[in-house]
Amino acid sequence: MKKGHWGLIVLAAILMVSFTVSPALFAYEKRDGKKIIVYGERQPAPNIDPSQFYDWSTRMLQQALYDALLKYVGNPPRLIPWLAKSWKKSADGKKWTFELVRNAKFHNGDPVTAHAVKWSFERTLALKKGPAWMLLDFLDKDGIRVIDDYTIEFSLKAPYAAFEMAIPWWYIMNPKVVLANEKAGDMGQEWMKDHSAGSGPFRQKRWEHGVLYELEAVEDYWKGWENPKHVNGVIYKIIRESSSLRMGLEKGELDVVAGLNSEDFDAVAKNPNIYVTNDPGWTTFGIKMNTQKGYTKDINIRKAICYAFDYPSMIKIYNGNAILEDSPFPKGMKGYIPVPNVYRQDMKKAKEYLAKAGYPNGGFELEYVYVQGLEEERQIGLVLLDNLAQLGIKLKMVPLVWPNMVARASKVETSPDLMAVFTTPIMNDPDVVAIQYHKDSWGKYYGSHFYQNEKVWDLIQKARFTADWNVRKSLYEQIQVMIMEDAPEIFGMLYNRRWAFRKHLQGFVFSPMRLTSEIDLYPLYIQD
Amino acid sequence: MGLSMKRFFVKRLVLMGITLFGLSVVVFSISRIAPGDPARLAAGPDATEEMVEVIRKEFGLDRPLIVQYGLYMKGLLKGDFGRSIRTRHQVWEDIKNYLPATFELVFVSISFATLFGILFGVLSAVYRDRWIDHLIRFFSVTGVAVPMFWLGIMLQLLFSAKLHWLPLGGRLDTMIPPPTPLTRFFLIDSLLSGNWVVLKNGLVHIFLPAFVLSFPALASITRINRAEMLEVLHKDFVLNERAHGLPNRVILFKYALKNALIPTLTMIGLRYGWMLGGTILVETVFDWPGIGYYAVAAAVYSDFQPVMAVTILLGLNFMIANLLVDIGYGYLDPRVRYE
After folding, report:
1. Interface test with A, best of B33, B46, B303 (most A CBs within 10 A)
2. Over the stretch A286-296, which tens digit does the pLDDT of each residue have?
3. Separation of alpha carbons A517 and A61, rounded Å
4. Which residue pairs from A309-313 have beta carbons closer than 8 angstroms and sit at least 24 positions apart in sequence?
5. CB-based contact B165 A21, cutoff 8 Å
6. Are A439 and A457 in contact (CB under 8 A)?
7. Which residues contact A195 (CB under 8 A, 6 or more apart)?
8. What is chain A's Cα-based Rg?
9. Are A225 and A59 in contact (CB under 8 A)?
10. Is A411 on the interface with B (CB under 8 A)?
11. d(CA A200, CA A433)
12. What does the alpha-carbon distance between residue A99 and residue A152 come to, in Å, rounded to a whole number?
C-alpha cells in the first residue's frame, strides 16, 4: 500500500509538470506577424449597439468600430472634425450644418454619406434608447435634412448651445448593413448587439461574451493611421479581480490594465517594465443631501454639515490621487470657476449654523447611504460619522446595492438624508452638470437632493438656450456660486484616473471625456 | 421491481414538476417584490421618463403582475426564458454560453473530490492514527475551514505568478480560440475534434479552479467516508470475512466500502448541488466564464429574467442530483429499493 501511495505522488508530479505552461515573459501577442495588445478590465460589453448603450466599455468598442461626425481628444478636451471636415451653426444656434469628408468608407466599402448620417440619427431618436436623451428635446426626424451627398443640416426645435458637444456620442452606422439584418421591424437591434456596421479604425474579430472581445485594425482605414507602428489588434479581456489584473500585467499577459486599487497601482509603478498614468478626471464625488425632507431640509443644518466635514481626508483615502472640488462643476470643464468661500472644515462655524437651526447640541440622527462594497465611500462615511459626532449628530451608515439606491433616490419621501454619489459629465459643456441641479433631474440618482431654487433653474434654462458663449459664461458663474451657497450637497472631490501600461505600449492620450476606464485605441502604438 | 421502479419514477417526476412550479412562483414573487426599478436602471442614468417608459413597455413591465407571470410561464413551457433587460440578450442564448463552462468545472471538481475523497477516506480509516491518517485529517479540516476565495488567490500567486506553472485564469489562453462547439464542454469538444492543443490548454486551465472548487467537497467526502469505514470495519461481518481468510483488498473494497458508501453518496449529491450554486467565488477568482458570475451580475442590476432562469435550472439540477442519489441507494442497498 505504501509503495502505491508514493507511486501516486510521482504520477501526480509528472502530470503537473507536463501540464505546465512555459514561463516565458512575453510582451504583446502576435498572430501572423501582427502585433496584438491585451487590455484587462472588469466590465463586459454585452451590447455594442450605438443606439442602445454607451457605458464606458461599450463606448470604447464603439469608438473603435464606428466614427462620429466629431471626436473628443485631449485634456482639456477638444472637439475635432472626424467624419465631418467642417461645421457651422446659424447665429440663433438653431441650424447646424456639417460638411462630410469625401473619402470615408464603411468596413464593407460603402461610402459614408449624408444619407447614412441622417439614417443613423433617426434610428437613435426613434429607438429612444442609449444616447437619445441628449437630443430628444431638440431634434426630431423632420429636423434632419440631406442637402447633398456630403452635406447635412440639423434644424433644432430650440437653440441648444451644447448640440455639437453631443455629436461625438452619435455614431454613424451603415443603413444597408443594419437593415439587411432587421428582424420584425426591430431596426436591427437584435443583430447589432454583437455585430457592427461602422467605418471606424477597427473591425470585429473574435467576440466571446464574458471572456474577450477582439478587434482587428483596418489597415487601410480611410483616415489613415497616425503612427506606422500602430497596434494591429486589440483584445479587450474581462478580468474580474484586482489581484488577477495586477498579476496578469506583471507576467506580461496583459499590456494595459485599469481598475486596480490604489495600493496595486502604486506597487506596479515600481516595476521597470510598467508605467502608470495619473490624470485628474471629471468624475465628481459628492454627498447629496435631501433638501426637502427631514433635518437636512434646513439650510443651516446643511451648512453645519458642510463646515464639519474633514475634506482633505478624502485625498488620503485615495492615496493622494484626488483633488478637492471647489465648484459644483469639475475643474477644467468649460465654464468652470473656482467658487470663492468654498466650505472647508471649521467646527466653530459648523456649531454656529447648528445653533441657528435650533439644535446647538445636535441630538438627532442622519442616514448616510452608500454603495455596498465600495470601500472608498464607506471610509468617507466613517470620516463624516466622526466629524458629525463632534456636533452631537449621529450618523447611521446604510450600505445598499445600486438598484436600491436608485429606487430610493427616485422619490423625495424616500431619498436619504445623505447619499454618496459619483457623477461623470459626458459632454464638455456646463449644461450637463448644471442640469443636475434643475427640477428635470429630480428622480434621477444625481437629483437625490431634490434641490429647489427657481432663480437657479431660470438661469440654467436661460444659459441652455443662449447661443453666445460669453453671455452663457457669466450665467454659469452665477449658477456655480448660487448652488454652492445653497449647500445641496457636500461638494467632495475628483479622483484621478489611472492606467498601468507595459512599457512597449505607447501613444495613450488621456481625455476626461472618455468614461471611467475607456481608452481611445486609435493612437496606440508599439515601441519595441 | 420493474413496476415499482416505474412508479417510483413517475412519482418523483410529478413531485419534481410541483416543486419546480413552486420554485418559479417564489422566484418570480421575490424578484418583483424586491425594491428597485429595473426599467429605469436599464434605460441608463440620464434617460428621460419617456425613455424609461419605452423599456417598461418593451419588457411588459407595465402590465399587471399576474399577466407578467402568466406570460413568463407560457414562455417557460416553450423553453423561452425571456430577454435580459440589461443586455437585451436572449437569456437562453446566454445560458447556452455560460452554463456548459460551469458544468464542465463542476463535473471535473466533483469527480476529483469523489475519487480522492473515497480513496483518502479508506486510507485514513485503514491506517487509523498513523501519520497518513493525521495528514489526511489535517487536510480535511483545512478543506472545510479555508475560504475558497483565499485559497484560489494563494494558489494563483504560487503556481501562476511565482512559478509560472499554471495560467492565471480563463478557460483557454487569450490567443487560443475555443474548439468547434458541439457539447460546449471544451475538454470534450477538443477531444472529439482531435484538437490536442486546445485539450492540453483546457486541462492546464481547469486544474486550479477545479482543485479549489473540489477542496471543501473533497474534505467532507473524506471525513464522512473515513467515519463510515471505521464503523463498518468493526462490524461482525468483517470479522467473519477475515476469519474466513478473505484477502484484505476484497474485504475493503468489495464489502466494507460498499456499505460505507451510502452516507458518502448522500454527501456527494449534496456537495454537487452546493458546488453548482457556489461556483461564483471560484469563477470570479479564475475568470471562469460561468453561470454563477452571470447570475450575480444580473442580480446586482435587478435583471430578473436571467436570475429566474438560472435559479430554476439550478433547482432542476439539484432535483435530478437527488434523484440519482436515491437510485444509487437502491443499487448499493437492496433494502431501500423504492418502496
Report:
1. B46
2. 999 999 999 99
3. 12
4. A309/A343, A309/A345, A309/A383, A309/A384, A309/A387, A309/A490, A310/A345, A310/A383, A310/A386, A310/A387, A311/A343, A311/A344, A311/A345, A311/A492, A311/A493, A313/A380, A313/A383
5. yes
6. yes
7. A181, A204
8. 26
9. no
10. no
11. 30
12. 7
Report how far residue B259's alpha carbon sits from residue B263's, in angstroms, rounded to the nearest whole number: 9
Residue partners of A394: CB distance under 8 A and separation at least 6? A362, A364, A365, A366, A388
pLDDT above 80: residue A25: no
Convert the pLDDT of each residue in A393-422 to its tens digit.
Answer: 999 999 998 888 988 998 999 999 999 999
Cell numbers 423561452: residue: B80
Per the DSSP assignment, residues forming a β-bridge with A526 are A505
Q: How many Cβ atoms from other residues are within 10 Å of residue A362's Cβ?
A: 20
Residues A49/A193, Cβ–Cβ less than 8 Å: yes
Which residues, at least 6 apart from A432, have a Cβ–Cβ distance to it below 8 Å? A162, A165, A425, A426
Pairing, β A274-289 against β A418-423:
antiparallel
Position A30 scores a pLDDT of: 85
Of A53, A128, A241, nearest to B51 by CB-CB distance is A128
CA-based nearest residue in chain B for residue A54: B44
Alpha-carbon dihedral sign for residues B89, B90, B93, B95 = positive
ipTM of the shown complex: 0.90
Residue A184: its chain B contacts at CB < 8 A? none
CA nearest to A6 within chain B = B132
The answer, yes or no, to whether residue B89 has pLDDT greater than 90, is yes
Residue of B nearest to A133 (CA): B47
Q: Is the pLDDT of residue A445 over 70?
A: yes
- B96 — phi, psi (to 5°)? -60, -30
Please give the share of chain B, as a percent, with pLDDT higher than 70: 98
Please give the grid coordinates belonging to residue A295.
433635518
Q: Which residue has the cell 448593413?
A: A177
Of the candidates B36, B126, B174, the beta carbon closest to that of A253 is on B174
Residue of B nearest to A51 (CA): B43
Q: Which residues contact B316 (CB under 8 A, 6 or more apart)?
A: B16, B20
Give the position of cell 421591424. Answer: A185
pLDDT at A2: 46
Sign of the alpha-carbon dihedral angle for A424, A425, A428, A433: negative
A102 in contact with B at a CB cutoff of 8 Å? no
* Confidence band of A21 (pLDDT split at 50, 70, 90): very low
Residue A495 in contact with residue A318, Cβ under 8 Å? Answer: yes
Q: Please tell me what DSSP assigns to residue B156.
A: I
- Alpha carbon dihedral B282, B287, B293, B294, in 10-degree steps, equals -150
Taking alpha carbons only, the member of A423, A511, A494 closest to residue A77 is A511
| Ordered strands of the A95-100 beta sheet | A84-89, A95-100, A151-155, A144-148
Distance between CA atoms of B228 and B125, rounded to whole angstroms?
Answer: 9
Residue B322 confidence (pLDDT): 85
For chain A, the farthest-separated pair of C-alpha atoms sits apart, in whole angstroms, at 94
Question: Per-residue pLDDT for B249 more than 60?
Answer: yes
**Phi/psi at A194 (5° precision):** -130, 25
In chain B the first and final C-alpha atoms are separated, in Å, by 10
Residues A329-383: pLDDT tens digits?
999 999 999 999 899 999 999 999 999 999 999 999 999 999 998 999 999 999 9
A18-27, A267-276, B243-252: range with highest mean pLDDT: A267-276
C-alpha cell at B72: 413568463
Interface test with A, best of B175, B284, B294 (most A CBs within 10 A): B175
Instruction: Please determine, for residue A16, whether its predicted confidence score (pLDDT) is greater than 60.
Output: no
Q: Is A9 on the interface with B (CB under 8 A)?
A: no
